[in-house]
Structures
1.
Amino acid sequence: MSVDRRALLTQIIMSIQKMTDANSERLCNASRFKSLEKGEILVHQNCEDHFEYFLLNGKCRNLIRDAQGREVTLGFTKGFGIVPPNIARTREGNSLVEIEMLAASDIAIIDSNKLTELMVGDEEIRDWGNAVLRQELQRMVAREWSLAVLSAQEKLEWFRSDFPDGEATFPHIHIASYLGITPVTLSRVRAPSRP
């Protein structure tokens, strides 16, 4: 099984930016692997977190909870993909978000400090890490822009372009939260228009 997981991690690494086999191997060697079940929490909000996560298969969401227990979905990751980088979801070593598994999933985990060490020591790995950060920044800005200026229908169209199979993949209540609309509004804009 670990050989399959390493192969999946290599594919994820190379999907961000090509690198030499030797450097890809260095990233794989710095990783450990874990399986999680649907509903398990990978990271708890306000808890210590010093890791980078690669979703080899399955799906998860990033969310925040307020003091009253209300939650807002901030993003989705579907295998295979990279969970938003540690620097984008933590402050002073504590997680700002909770990461909930929406399906049984396999993940690869790299210590953030080890990844930083690898990036400092090798330009190719540093360029790869910077590409990961750029992608996350672009995703965050696109979401903020859509929340600020798009109508509910336009938000759904934007979501569909970003996640072509998202409506069949993620629970609609979480999609509505992600889009900043109510589940009723999502249902309404999803309904086919009548003459």
2.
Amino acid sequence: MSHTLILGASRGIGLELVHAHLRRGHTVTATCRTRSPALDATAARVVPSIDMREVESLLRLREALDRPVDRLVVNAGIFRAESLPSLAEQGFASVAEQLLNNALGPLQAVVTLLPRLAEGARIGLVSSRMGSIADNDSGGYYGYRMSKAALNAAGRSLALDLAPRGIRVALLHPGFVRTDMTGGQGDIDPSTSAEQLAARLDELDARRSGGFWHANGEALPW
């Protein structure tokens, strides 16, 4: 039975990713910063108080894992909406915050957990189309765009560096999903997005590894 580890699973897409993998018959370990009744109600093993920004927290998670991880999904992240005027007036703290949470944190998590990843494991890094430089035709959102572009760069390097172990990596855009992060706005619900993301990981092979994929299977521009 495959063992899936989902980082950032207390609500929204992360919670639905738990459901999607349980439906596939996987054993699921799910992490969160703060426990939620909805996550506790699932059949997943919950490891709370995990913060990807803190190495000590990730080391504690690594020690808590009692079997190799076949699939790692890094979903945790934050969103802040800056415009050029707000940067000039308020400074760059929110940009730095997003770079830490959305790029450095996920990379730190993958590297720290490498000893627990099975040979041939699959890694899904939940990115965003807003991290595409070629697709940016509206500007703004400096921290979020920069952090997701940095995550994409890290994921591409991970795919190349981990290929000798047969580990495959995908950068995954979940779509415009109706969650708290989007204020309930969006084109699809979290359950549909999670099912599509899980399907992309199901089909992830050496040829697709290192790619930037929409949840619906479309290849996205960098």
3.
Amino acid sequence: MPAKRPCLSPLRKYLRAAALCAVLLGPQAQAADILVVTDGQHPVQAASGARLIELDQPARLQAELSAHLPADPSRGATLVQQRLKSGGLELQQRLGAAYQGVVDAWSLGVTTIPAVIVDHRYVVYGEPDVAKAVALIEAHRRTQP
């Protein structure tokens, strides 16, 4: 015969349900997709968990690859190919991420930097403090039904 479960008071039932909801819904209620778009001329105070896109990152990587190249185009091309090869997968990932960031910013219609974008829907332009920009967005969201 199965053991009987003790009867829970209504308050305990409520507290257990609230705790379960907090565990299950807490990350969704707090989580926001935060994207920060800037460049080297517009430093930001990035928040943890935010994706940072630096629009001049591709140019910086190209400058790194083309630094101190010889005047001879043939030798220069060979040296760049060697650098690309020696950089391996890590360099390929950095290049891919840099260009993907530019594409993502362009596809979101970013017009001014720095830009803080939340959930691909809300944006604050010109605020270098990401936490402050996110707070402005959250305040706006609370006023909208």
